[in-house]
Amino acid sequence: MNQETVNRAGEKVLGIIGIIFNILAIALIGFAMASYANVQGTPEFQQFIEDEIMSDPAFSTPEEAQTVINMMSSSFSVVGWVLIALLVVSTILAIIALINLRKNKKASTAGVLFILAGLFAGLLSLTSILFYIAAIMCFVRKPRTQNNQNTRDDDFKYQEDQLRRKEESVRRDDTTTRREDEVRRDDTTTRNDDDTPYRPL
């Protein structure tokens, strides 16, 4: 049972755009983390902490304020690395999905991988939406099987046979009508000959 090839250019384009967005997001997060690490050691940042956070009346002691600052810094770093890891996994899954799209028989597998890539890229981010659309296209656009084409050919042949049979029946009716007309003509001429009186020579 042979299958016709389906052009998967749309799915590939959406997957490539999603991968590019993932790479840009990884670069932006990495740049933000590096910038924050560089800013932490500057005197301006230390002055900002002393003026804004250390003097905040919500903290009873400066040590408590310093503890909160350290927790915020470490949590920012951890969240950044977690986001980078998720985006890297999403990018890898999208690349594997693109590889599977080269084979038409693995379009469903590529759709599943695109869904997983969208989940790792964020549930409702722009990148995840692109991956979801590509997955839907992988599931919906399926190649037609050779059997379906054969069935259509058989239906067309059946219709042709029906038309031929109708034409043959019409021709037969025409020939029968002609024969009946000829027989009637012969009968009328025979009767006319019989009605003429006999004249002796």
From TrEMBL:
<protein>
    <submittedName>
        <fullName>Membrane protein</fullName>
    </submittedName>
</protein>
<keyword id="KW-1133">Transmembrane helix</keyword>
<feature type="compositionally biased region" description="Basic and acidic residues">
    <location>
        <begin position="151"/>
        <end position="201"/>
    </location>
</feature>
<feature type="transmembrane region" description="Helical">
    <location>
        <begin position="113"/>
        <end position="137"/>
    </location>
</feature>
<feature type="transmembrane region" description="Helical">
    <location>
        <begin position="78"/>
        <end position="101"/>
    </location>
</feature>
<keyword id="KW-0812">Transmembrane</keyword>
<dbReference type="InterPro" id="IPR025273">
    <property type="entry name" value="DUF4064"/>
</dbReference>
<feature type="region of interest" description="Disordered">
    <location>
        <begin position="149"/>
        <end position="201"/>
    </location>
</feature>
<feature type="domain" description="DUF4064">
    <location>
        <begin position="7"/>
        <end position="121"/>
    </location>
</feature>
<feature type="transmembrane region" description="Helical">
    <location>
        <begin position="12"/>
        <end position="37"/>
    </location>
</feature>
<keyword id="KW-0472">Membrane</keyword>
<dbReference type="Pfam" id="PF13273">
    <property type="entry name" value="DUF4064"/>
</dbReference>
